[in-house]
Design brief:
This protein is mainly alpha-helical. 79% of the residues lie in helices and 0% in strands. The protein has helices at residues 2-26, 32-62, 67-94, 103-130, 136-156, 167-175. α2 (32-62) packs across α6 and α4 packs antiparallel against α5. The chain is elongated and about 55 Å long. It starts with a helix and ends in a 5-residue tail after the last helix. The relative contact order is 0.15.
Length: 180
Amino acid sequence: MRTCRATAAGKLTVVLATLVLVVAACGGGPSPRAWAASVCEALTPWRAEISKLTSSTDQQMTAQTTPAQAKENLVRLFAGAADASETARRRVADAGVPETEHGEEISRGFQTTLEKVRDAYGRARDTIDGLGTAEPTTFYDGVKATVETLTKEYDASALDTSQLNSEELKQAFDEVPECR
């Protein structure tokens, strides 16, 4: 009799575990708070890296280096910014879709913004990489124009959490510690 009960209990456990997995898989994405925390965890190191790279770029623009050295450093800096933006985009994608109205649209909006930033840095990298260094004035004029274009593209794609279409997410971004 015990064996029969143990077997039945074992089968019931397997069925319940399977049911929990199925329900969890069908239940949708993370809560607004969990999603906001994941997004902020993705964006915090990205912002720090972009800030560091921006400072390094400013230093490069005023440093007494040869055009060839400046070119090499700027290409590396912009490549790093593009890579950091892609890492942040991937981490936001990995956060899933928040369980809220328009969750898919909101998640996609964050990813699209990071794609645009990544692409802007990639274009800046490619433009700088294509500049000749034989004539310093021409080179630095090209760098200046590239940085101005990058700044415009970056500003146009800036992340703005105030434009979220979800009150739940707005509240989550305001409240979770990861976003402070």
